[in-house]
Amino acid sequence: MTSASGRHRAAPAPRGIERGTVYFALAIVTVFVCGVKVYTAGELADVPLWGVYGVLVTVYIFSRFVLAWFYRPRPANLAESQLPSVAIVVPAYNEQDAIADTAYACLDVDYPRHLLRVVVVDDCSKDQTLARLREVAAQRPELTVIAQPVNQGKRHAMATGLQYAGDAEILIFIDSDSLVEPDAVRRLVRYFADPKVGAVAGHTDVWNRHENLLTRMQAVRYYVAFKVYKSAEALFGCVTCCSGCFSGYRRTAVNAVLGKWLTQTFLGQPSTYGDDRSLTNYLLPDWRVLYAPDAMAHTNVPDKMKQFLKQQLRWKKSWVRESLRAAKFIWRKNPIMALSYYIGLALPLIAPQVAFRAFIIQPTFVGAMPLWYMAGVLAMAG
User: Fold this and answer.
1) CATH number for the domain including 231?
2) N or C end of the chain: smaller count of CB under 10 Å?
């Protein structure tokens, strides 16, 4: 919508998916999956390996909900005099339609002006992103706009923003199409009162959830990924990915790993994607990493299948790379967290073999169609 001043402002935040709805859905899925396992028990007895896989998948997903239920964060109540200085850094590339709203949302957060900096780095966009930012800066001179002379990628844009963060104790990275709630920063920084905390992932909802079926499905997936999976990991102080949509980092923790993060390679090639998961991985060995369900932001998700698949491919590439990295040190964390992590890493790697058996081997040589397999996947994916 457009305000009286003529600038674009974010619409009122849509109501989030109720927690009870998700747990009701979990109960239905659990009953369904158990029914499938009972119905196909004879087949599983013939091939124990596939039976074990199915049981592990079911137990793993169910355990995420159980662990998440026990996560009850109690962040400190900070007085005004105890609030840390904060720099919000927004890397931007070709976001002309969203960047102004993102910048205004960051500038309008409820936080003391003398403790807040907002820095937006344009990574040599090809559209009107930089022009939009300069229009915002003309109205709000407290906004710092940095124009990269050449495109270097999101990771380097984030690092450039750090150079203009002043003496900020807490760094908050926000994607260029995200909108933060006015109280989000104040809520997020409370978790850093614990000196052992190096990073905190905020909660992100899907802003355009009502556009079509694809965005609705992603809205549910986002809710589960944050409220369930991140809560389960945060129970052990071990959130494995502080989402780029909205996350905070202790400045000293980032400074200690900045050089390694910027020059990271994989199989001899520079790592140019998965910046959020990568940075989280560099902090995890030495710091607690938490999730702040009460610090809210919103983001737009792809509404076209082609865009969605391209995004998922990037995410899966970074997931494989960073999961293998984390496997080297995660055993030093909480043993329950480590066990669940290794199971969660193994299952997706085994899944292609299971799918090959269900869709190729069974129909070809046994004459069994993969209906139950497909039903189980759909149920657990929901």
Assistant:
1) 3.90.550.10
2) N
